[in-house]
User: Fold these one by one.
Assistant:
Number 1:
Amino acid sequence: MKRIEVVQRIIDRKKARRYLEIGVANGTNFFRIKARRKTAVDPYFKFSAKRKVEWVLKNPWNLFARYCECPSDDFFASAGPADLYDVVFVDGLHTYGQSLRDVLNSLAHLAQGGVIVMHDCNPQSEAAAHPAESFAQAAALNLPEWEGGWSGDVWKTICYLRSQRKDLRVFVLDADGGLGIVTRGEADNSLKLTDEALHRMTYQDLAKERKGLLNLKDESYLFEFLKTI
Ligand SMILES: C[S@@+](CC[C@H](N)C(=O)[O-])C[C@H]1O[C@@H](n2cnc3c(N)ncnc32)[C@H](O)[C@@H]1O
């Protein structure tokens, strides 16, 4: 199952109006999403004005979309307390630090009953999980097993939330690179990792204990989850 399907099923189930995507790139996901108020955030959009217009014709929900060309930290710094979102898709810079900040900032602007979806939580190789500072830096390293995809150490954000936030339900669907799902609510199970321990962990640690660390669920679990929101 692809991220678009998971995000759209959550939006449809909740009849969600306000959708925020952090990290939009060429809009592969964003332009297809159907929601009344869509907000796109990326320091550099990778699409032309013409493509934007084309996508309004293909999916009229894009007519009122808002485009914020800035880093997510700036976007959240300028957001007011009344700026709330029902569903947030976090897919920006794939570092532990930035993805964690994106989730914590999203939580501060998450409407009651809101859902955060995170992309790239379950990397399948050491190269894809390389803790670089950016995609360009990871790509330039010529890492063995490099196949062009970079998830970085976003997976550590899942482990952090499962260790430090007993007020959040967190799991990862085994679909499309690992789709992390975060909602408010009592954690069903948790980890006991300190931030320090997490910083020291490597891809080998993840590979040894993937299921337990990520609370990894088969993609069919999405349908059980949808009944609870
Ligand atoms: C993997 S792509 C997003 C793909 C898109 N969500 C999709 O599903 O089609 C990651 C994007 O994050 C953007 N990005 C990098 N740093 C960012 C930041 N600080 N804030 C927001 N977006 C960022 C990059 O410019 C890039 O376009």
Number 2:
Amino acid sequence: MPETQATHVASGKVRELYALDDERLLLVASDRISTFDVVIPTDIPDKGRVLTGLSGFWFARTRQIVPNHLLALRDDGRSTECRRLEMLPLECVVRGYITGSGWKDYLATGEVCGHVLPKGLTESERLPQPLFTPSTKAQTGHDENITRDQAAELIGDRFEEVERTALDLYRFAAAHSESRGIILADTKFELGLDADGALVLADEAFTPDSSRFWPADRYSPGRAQRSFDKQYVRDYCESVGWDKTYPGPELPEEVVAETRAKYIEAFERLTGISFDEYVADPEVVLR
Ligand SMILES: Nc1ncnc2c1ncn2[C@@H]1O[C@H](COP(=O)(O)OP(=O)(O)OP(=O)(O)O)[C@@H](O)[C@H]1O
Ligand SMILES: [Mg+2]
């Protein structure tokens, strides 16, 4: 439980936000899982710890690219004390491979967020270079992909700095992941501004909720890939004929266990740290 003087300020689909004071927030990652922007009624035990630990791991390693909001991880392994920022009104998406909504857009138009792509790409193919493909931050419903011009309208003259930062973060995390046998197909993060107007990485970073991680030894373009993300839960939800509106379906025990195992495997492969070690001392990911 957060300390008593913390005031609850918001509930996201996955996180509870508390104000510690005017400058600091406590972000508590629950075990909730959302697919197709709907929170599923069944929790995945320890998922919030995996997200918090992985984000902390990346925050500790990307400071030379951009400062971030992390102040401390709490002993529960799921609570992050962070700097309270003014969040930019867009999702920073970077794609190294063509999949998901990017693949759908490409099939329909040959473009993704205004980037004209080579003809004849197959599903999950590696792009000639990583692309910044921002989307709106929908208050309700689904985020929508937008062009560079639309993004520049949302955030003004910081656009180029944001794009460069997003691409640098992706390249760093993709290279680290590759060294661990994992492809970082795409990822999404949120940037904010601090009181001095400096750009700061916030929210979560390079987790299975915000990224598509594919085991490199199974990679084979021309089809959808197996992944360490929510795809397994999405597939289950679609297999029961769910219409993707509230309420989502309950998950059977074996789907919960398999999903939990995938999140933990992603944590352990990416960090090289055992999950038990993290639970015993969350700060291990910051060293
Ligand atoms: N340092 C920060 N300062 C201010 N807000 C932050 C900071 N870090 C994260 N947030 C916000 O906290 C929320 C995290 O909650 P969560 O991830 O559960 O939300 P979500 O499901 O992604 O969607 P939504 O934001 O639409 O509720 C996000 O709205 C994010 O923008
Ligand atoms: Mg979120």
